[in-house]
Design a protein that fits this description.
51% helix, Arc Repressor Mutant, subunit A, single chain, alpha+beta, two-stranded antiparallel ribbon
Length: 487
């Protein structure tokens, strides 16, 4: 079969993402703080774009002057005082002609917090330990080993590498690494550079003053019983009265299992709501948060310059027209973004009215399709709108994604939101008897009484998501019963 070249006309349709459309999509999924930063950057790079300000007219200026003149205080009367005849001029001149600078206290500086509380960056765990390493009496080889040990600590302060690996990295003997590790474990915070939880607790136990042998014995040989709160087994194995076991356990409970966490450098993220929902009479009002968002407008100077067709080169005219189009599209995109967010927020309030009135337990199951059909938009648009957006409600501040959750069938046939079920489980556990906590099976039975049909493994999954321990580890020790068994 021979190959040949042919020319053929073909008409097709395809979606092309213009730069303007890409910008609109990007603005739609930005959070409020990110949008403010983007607008600020655009104001700096686009000379045609200006921030709208409130100008004072001549009438306002005249009325302001009249008010200022009317509120003027009467002129002060200056009283000239003559110094007394016996005034000590020599001491006066000696005091005020000194070359040392005078210290003037400002009221502003009095109100500032101490300097150590105004430091921008706090010390990390690595820098804090390296500072102690440099101050300690180490040889050059030991200091090298110590820096490798510190570099292999995780955020909780535990040693991630074993001794053999550190010895290989440092080119030293295992015994030398062990000696340096023991000295570093004496650094602040106490318990740092431990290889596991038992070693971390033992380091802190050995630093007690005075040392408590019972505490060390429990950590060494009965940590599993302590974890399961099987205090009777500890008392029986150590042949100690419950009172002593109770005191020792209270001491262990005050130890820090994650000593390096206090030096964690994770930045705190402050949430600024994009939407406010207020209850007015019997209705809920949606208000967009535009505080701090600059009001944009097109510069009249450049528009007039193009209209007058001054002595500009073609390159300058094209540049100004391009910036005008970019600024105009940015303003339209921001307005479209605000309208879209408002429509989605109104739809959420309509679907979740019971939540806004009664709380999380009345949250209804909802998916993106429900809101998309209500506001006549695509699901992908709703997904972008609800990304990194927060709503201030009478029940608290929630991310818009929070209102979209799966459904769980109830006994009576109606569906319940998964977040609502989680809140029910949390409340059941909060109100349980700490001496006899509910098992997952018992929680299933209690939920069934509230017309919630759910499996035991689902309760366990939701409990783990919320960070709630199982019943065996939530159980509180009953020392009264323990004393009776001891007798």
């Amino acid at each position: 079969m021979a190959l040949e070249l042919k020319q053929q006309l073909k008409l097709t349709q395809q979606l092309v993402m213009t730069p303007q459309l890409q910008q609109a999509i990007k603005l739609l999924q930005l959070s409020r703080l990110e949008l403010v930063e983007t607008v600020r950057q655009e104001l700096e790079t686009n000379p045609v774009l200006e921030e709208e300000t409130f100008e004072i007219t001549e009438d306002d200026e005249k009325s302001g002057k009249e008010k200022a003149e009317a509120s003027k205080d009467p002129e002060e009367v200056v009283v000239k005082e003559e110094p007394p005849e016996d005034f000590d001029w020599e001491s006066y001149i000696g005091e005020y002609s000194t070359s040392s600078p005078a210290i003037v206290e400002n009221e502003y500086f009095k109100e500032l917090p101490p300097l150590e509380n105004r430091l921008v960056k706090k010390a990390s765990l690595d820098s804090h330990l390296m500072w102690q390493l440099r101050l300690s009496n180490f040889t050059e080889e030991e200091r090298n080993i110590g820096s490798i040990i510190i570099g292999n600590l995780n955020t909780d302060g535990y040693l991630k590498a074993n001794v053999e690996e550190i010895a290989e990295m440092a080119g030293a003997e295992v015994e030398a690494v062990e000696k340096v590790l023991e000295r570093i474990q004496e650094f602040d915070p106490v318990g740092v550079a431990a290889r596991d939880l038992k070693e971390c607790l033992m380091i802190q136990a050995r630093n007690l003053e005075p040392r408590n042998e019972l505490v060390e014995e429990i950590i060494l040989n009965h940590l599993h019983d302590l974890e399961n709160k099987n205090y009777y087994a500890i008392s029986r194995a150590l042949k100690r009265p419950p009172e002593e076991i109770e005191k020792a356990i209270n001491i262990i409970m005050n130890f820090d299992p994650r000593p390096g966490l206090a030096f964690n450098e994770e930045d705190v993220q402050y949430i600024s709501p994009d939407i406010y929902v207020f209850k007015v009479d019997n209705d809920f009002v949606v208000v967009l948060n535009e505080d701090g968002l600059p009001k944009l407008k097109i510069s009249s100077f450049y528009k007039d310059a193009l209209k007058k067709d001054g002595n500009f080169s073609d390159f300058t005219k094209d540049y100004i027209q391009e910036k005008l189009r970019s600024a105009s599209w940015l303003i339209k995109s921001i307005h479209q973004r605000q309208r879209t967010i408002y429509k989605v927020a109104k739809s959420i309030v309509k679907f979740q009215r019971e939540f806004f009135e009664k709380g999380v337990t009345h949250l209804k199951p909802m998916v993106l399709r429900d809101v998309a059909e209500d506001v006549n938009m695509h699901e992908s648009t709703i997904s972008r709108v609800t990304t990194n957006k927060y709503m201030h409600t009478p029940q608290g501040i929630f991310e818009l994604k929070f209102f979209f959750n799966s459904s769980i069938n109830s006994v009576v046939g109606e569906s319940v939101a998964s977040e609502s079920v989680k809140e029910m489980i949390r409340r059941i556990i909060q109100n349980e008897n700490p001496e006899k906590p509910y098992s997952d099976k018992k929680i299933v039975e209690l939920l069934r009484e509230q017309n919630i049909k759910i499996a035991r493994r689902t309760v366990a999954k939701y409990r783990e998501i919320m960070g709630i321990l199982p019943s065996s580890k939530r159980k509180k020790a009953v020392w009264g019963n323990l004393k009776k068994k001891r007798k």
